[in-house]
Structure formats: C-alpha cells, structure tokens
Amino acid sequence: MKLEVKNVTKTYKTKTAVNNFSMVLETGECVGLIGPNGAGKSTLIKVISDIINPTRGEILLDGKKISKMKKEIGYLPQYPNFYHWMTAYETLTFMGELSGLKQEELTKSIPELLSKVGLSGEENSKVGTFSGGMKQRLGIAQALLHKPSLILMDEPVSALDPIGRREVLNLIEEIKRETTILLSTHILSDAEEMCERFIIIKDGQKIEDTTLSDLLNSNSENKMIFEVAAINQQWLEVLKNLNYVKNVEIIGNKIKIQVGNIGLNKNMLLRNALDHHVDLVKFEIISDTLEEIFLKLVVGK
Ligand code: ADP
Ligand code: MG
User: Fold this and answer.
1) pTM for the structure as a whole
2) Would I find Phosphoprotein among this entry's keywords (predicted)?
C-alpha cells in the first residue's frame, strides 16, 4: 500500500483550509498528523477519504485515484454520528450494508470485530447507553468493517475522558500491528504515544515531516548526561581529547558532555564508554521536550 497526497489545496469560499500539501505514507506506518485547532487536519483527512474533493491536487492509492480505491480506506470521523436507538450489532449491520457488504460477510465479521474492539457482550445494548470510549471503539469497528489496508482516524482520543482515552489508545496499539494508520490530534502527547512519525500542519501547510527521534535530536542542545557508578578519571582524559567532544562537566556522579552533533556522536560516545568499561547507570540526551518543540514550531514561541 502506498498513499500519495499530491499538492492538495482545499478552499472553502475564501478560506484556504489546506494549502499545497503533499505527503507519502507506506504500509505498516502509523503517522500522526498534528496541528492546533483550525490547522486543516479534518479537511485533509476528509479529502484523503474522498468525502470531499480537493480544489487542486490529487490523492493516489497504489498509483490509482482514491475514488476508485475507497474500499481500501477506513474512516473514523472526528464526530461519529450514531443512531442512539440502534444496538451495536444493528449499527454495524446498517453501516456495513451502506458500504455494500453482503449479509453473510457481516454475520461473520461483526462478532469478530466487536470482540476485537472489546465490545463482545454489548452487541445488543443500545448505542445511546455507551460511554464515550465505547462509542469511539464502535466507530473504529465501523471503520474496519470492510477490512481496509489504511485507516484514517480524526482525533480518535481528543474528546475522551482518561478511561476512554486509555481504552482507545490500547485498541489503536493493537490495530497498528495489522493496519496502516494515519491519525490526527492536537494533543502532542497522544501522538507521541501512538506514532513514531509526525507530520505537523499549521494554517493548512505542512511544516514538519519527521520522526520522534529526529525531532528530539534536531532540537537538542547537543548535550548528553552519562550517570556512572563511579567516575573513571582515565576515561575523562580520553573524553576531553575526542575531537567531537566540545565540553565536559562533572556534577557528582554525572558527566555532562557537549558534542558537535548529537545524532552522529551519540553512538560513538556510547561505544567509547563501553570500550573503556565505564559503569553506566543512566544515559540521557538533554533536549527540549516535545511540547516545547511543538510550541516553537506552531506558535513561534
Ligand atoms: P482542524 O481539523 O485542524 O481543526 P479544519 O480542517 O476543521 O481544521 O478547519 C480548517 C479551517 O477551515 C478552519 O479555519 C475552519 O474554520 C475552516 N473550515 C472547515 N470546514 C469548513 C467549511 N465547511 N466551510 C468553511 N470553512 C471551513
Ligand atoms: Mg478537526
């Protein structure tokens, strides 16, 4: 599976919600689309799901236009709409029939899905009695009904209380193993928990496409802390003479080391410590927290 978003722009009357946005997503990835409210996340996800048409640009799945590949995509809207008087089973049957699935298929797949999303035993309960987390899990079951190869989830955990949030995060952890995921959130810690790759969107434009480790590395101060069982004077001398080591500071049992390029030098330094039998207790990179990086990128603080 390969999803290509090519130069997508979506304008509502005078408002450009998504502006010349491109990205590629491949099988097995779980990508977090992060941005503040109004950034264009829901619009972009609806364009990718072929719910609305882009003003310019195109979406390709395995090289074919998305309108011809809708079966490959599952979509969980930001605000799923259920009929409160239907049971969970009736809801999935209704949704399945709407998307053209056959009765025999549904009879087989609905109990499997309800079990996957932890709603076995609730099949005959009315959706109106469900908690936020249960509704969201039912929404995920609906998005998985036709066994898509890519699932798009718009803010799947943002509106949930801590318990519902945990239920849905655990479920996404499981789905991740078999389905490629693109999800949006305005809460960075949620993205951090679910995804390794992030795409940051602001005012409809892509401003970052990066991995958690790259983001941390590129925003680090190139400083590391080696906490050791005992200070090894010999190694300190070796350290000070390494050409990529810029500064060494000792604080109790901690050695604070500044290097030229944390991404390149981190492993070299760790290997060097091992070679010199340094008794390492803890290793830490000093960097901005993700929250701080995000604020800098998005708000310019
Ligand atoms: P997000 O999901 O990141 O909060 P949206 O995609 O919902 O962002 O919205 C992006 C921008 O487009 C916002 O400024 C929003 O007000 C505007 N917008 C969204 N939907 C519509 C619409 N149907 N008509 C006009 N403007 C819209
Ligand atoms: Mg939204």
Assistant:
1) 0.83
2) no
